[in-house]
Amino acid sequence: MNSLSAVSAKAKTVTTRGPGPGKRGRGWRTDRLGWLLVTPAAVIIGALVLYPSATSLIGSLRRYSLMNPERPFVGLGNYLRVLADPTFRRSMVTTGVYFVVISVGVLILGIGFALWLQTLRGRARALALGAVIIPWAVPGTVSGLLWSFIFTPTGAGLLNSALSSLHLIDASHVWLNTPGLGLVLIALTVVWSGTPLGVMIFLAALEGIPRDLYEQSRIDGAGPVRQFWSVSLPLLRPAIAIVLLNGATLAIGLFDQVYVLVGIDPSKITIAGSMYLYAFRDFDFGLGFAAAVIAAVITTLIAVVYLKAVYREVEY
Amino acid sequence: MRERGAARRRTMQVVVGAFVGTWSLLPIYWAVVVAVSQPSDLTIRPVSLVPRSFSLENFATLLLSSNPTGAVYLRGVTNSVIQAAGTTVVTLLIALPASYAFARVRFRGSTVVLAIITATIAIPVYLVLIPLFQLGAATGQLNTHQGVILVLVSASLPLAVWILRSHIATLPQDIESAARLDGASTFVMIRSIIGPLIAPGLVAAAVIVFLAAWGAFLIPLVYAGTGGTQPLTVVIPTFATQFVSNYGLQAAAGLLAVVPPLALVLVLRRHLLAGLTAGAVK
């Protein structure tokens, strides 16, 4: 019903507002009104998003140095230097680990929690929804801090003290410095922060699936599990694409949790983190620009793949 | 057989519920335990999830401006409130008229401008960070509230426009036609008719922008990293290094910083979901 009214509203807009022939004066006034309303937003986005993006692209082709105020054009020189830097290469591998854990985690917990919420009704559901979305309100730095009290090897660390209370370990482990596992644990704290948005996207998508599709498949003899795979999952494709894309963005841009949990440790930072090191520790803006552009290009490529391969407009 | 299915379903509900509750709440709950306990009590084994001692001293330290730590923390609170609230208000004031124009006014160029603005949702902070830092340094906006707010606004605007526009697009056209016959100007109409009608969308957009601004770290770290305009997200990590073994104080500092956004989300969660879904579906 809602989509119907939206369609009719659109049709009306076309008939009453189209700048038809012989209404040139009115068309000009419409243009003026439209631009008047849009200009503040357009100016801010132009000056503080589009212009800086262009600056980054162009700046990545120049050499910046504190000694030399001239910024000679070096072509792809910065990119070659960045890609040859072992620290940067390491940050790409690290980002890959974060990417896998965060994508899988947000996807599974997002769908799982949303399905669980759907089985609840009334007060129980309101309460459960409240519990699920709480991590969303926690800033990234604070979530890093909260999880540090779980992973820390000192007395306050819950993971060590729980495992040693159960006599599963003898001595405290420095979990975040364990090769491999440390990265997975850091990624889990990001899954914690990113899950609420995933749940909300999946919950909205699940609520939008018409009931009679389930009725029909039940008449055909499908159980709940079968229904999930053959009815829900195909219709959740757009939601899955959006949640995966969000996961990729979280992983590649990850900075806050790492900064608090382990500091700017070259073995734990993402590509965005190495941008920060180049630009604000070494003050080599050229390398920083190149690292940022590489991260942005990778994100864009992943987005294109997801939108082509996973996203499908669904018709009920 | 149906009864057994129902019982199994109920068990599943409870098991999953226990996992969800633990996952979402344990990190926050454990920080509360750390914040109120004597440090020595935390080393006793077996570990206890119920605090062995209870003291609000750490919270008091942070909230009393009479001691230096409290003064620094409270200034962080003030800065966070100014920057997050300022960002929210400015973003909505700019986004609402623009959203109305994109949804209703068929001006030349609207499709292109809307497409560009929507596409900038995908531009990550780290791509624009260095130029914004240079811009801020050149114009003297570093370490000022308005500098931080302006940058945070630019980061939130695209999403706010997208949410509000989809809400306005679902309103029936007749309402404005009637208002126009009454001779209401566009600005009056946006404020007194469109605004109230898309209240759920406004609430959703406001909360999303506020949460993003309150939690922002990289932007204020670069833009307000030194001087007196550091928000809590920048102050708290400095506490973690300055009071490296004082976990109680760190935990209290983190917990207090969560109170405002948490209150907002919990109070407004129903509007939030309604506002988000309406925006996402249409």
The SSE string of chain B, one letter per element, is HHHHHHHHHHHH
Query: How many helix segments of chain B?
Result: 12
CATH superfamily of the largest domain in chain B: MetI-like
Distance between the termini of chain A: 13 Å
Distance between the termini of chain B: 42 Å
List low-confidence stretches of chain B: none
Strand count, sense and barrel status of the largest sheet of chain A are:
none
Derived structural class of chain B: mainly alpha
Total individual domains of chain A = 2
Fold-level CATH name of the largest domain in chain A? MetI-like fold
The percentage of residues in β strands of chain B lies in: under 5%
Shape of chain A: globular
Features:
heterodimer, A: 316 residues, mainly alpha, 2 domains, 0% strand, globular, disordered N terminus, B: 282 residues, MetI-like fold, 77% helix
Give a description of the structure:
The complex is a heterodimer of chains A (316) and B (282). Chain A contains 14 helices and no strands. Chain A is mostly helical and 316 residues long. Chain A has two domains: 39 residues, no CATH class; 234 residues, MetI-like fold (Orthogonal Bundle). Chain A is globular. The mean pLDDT of chain B is 90. Chain B is globular and about 75 Å long. Chain B has 282 residues and is mainly alpha-helical. Chain B has two domains: 55 residues, no CATH class; 226 residues, MetI-like (MetI-like fold, Orthogonal Bundle). Chain B contains twelve helices and no strands. The interface between A and B is large, with 103 and 102 residues.
Give the SSE layout:
The complex is a heterodimer of chains A (316) and B (282).
Chain A lengths: L1 H16 L6 H36 L17 H8 L1 H33 L3 H12 L6 H12 L6 H8 L15 H27 L3 H9 L4 H12 L1 H16 L3 H7 L8 H10 L4 H25 L7
Helix pairs in contact in A: 3-14, 4-8, 4-11, 6-8, 6-12, 8-11, 11-14, 13-14
Chain B lengths: L1 H35 L20 H7 L4 H37 L5 H10 L5 H15 L5 H25 L4 H8 L4 H12 L1 H17 L2 H6 L8 H11 L4 H35 L1
